[in-house]
DUF5011 domain-containing protein
Amino acid sequence: MANVTATDKEDGTITLTKDNIVANDVDTSKAGTYHVTYKVTDKNGASAKKTITVTVKQNTGDLNSAPIISANDVTLNVGDTFDPLANVTATDKEDGTIILTKDNIIANDVDTSKAGTYHVTFRVVDKNGAITEKTITVTVKEKVTNKPVSPQQPQKPSKPTTPTKPSGQKNPVKTGDMTNVGLFTSMFAGSTGVLAVLLTTKTYPGGLLHDPSTFYTEKRRDSKHY
């Protein structure tokens, strides 16, 4: 009767009681749509009816939460052992931790004997009937075998090459200032001896300059021409 009033032009305000409720199917214990019908009669016998709609919604605090499945994709090598329940857990807000068994696996096509992509599907139902499903991908790869690598033989050091001397070049004569020295010997045969002339050649910016040094060697020989 809250917030329900009735008035009449002749009678004024009419006080309502439960007798004015002629229909009421409201059930607040569960969500749904209901109706209430009122009937009012004035002193002269004139009557009026009115029906209202009452909507009962689910209390959000009473909603049942669905379980949560924690499971990640898996990568394996050919020949590995696969346990579909390893590292898979399920929890529920109302039920707490849910113990998983093989009955929670509703699909599993994994074949670890050959490479490929496979799938496993889990289903969990809580005590209030809420259902959660989750599918993970299982990738099986070919096993990689590392072949041993033989150690490489150490390379033998190459023999140093002997520098070649340009043709026509004489062996240089080393002096204190590394000056190129040319030795010109002029031999004159005679009874007096042999004359040798040492000619030193130096290079200057303006050209060659000879610094002759002459020395004499006395040697008695027969008078012949050489």
Summary: The CA atoms of residues 30 and 56 lie 7 Å apart. The two ends are 160 Å apart (CA to CA). The chain has no helices and 15 strands. The mean pLDDT is 79.
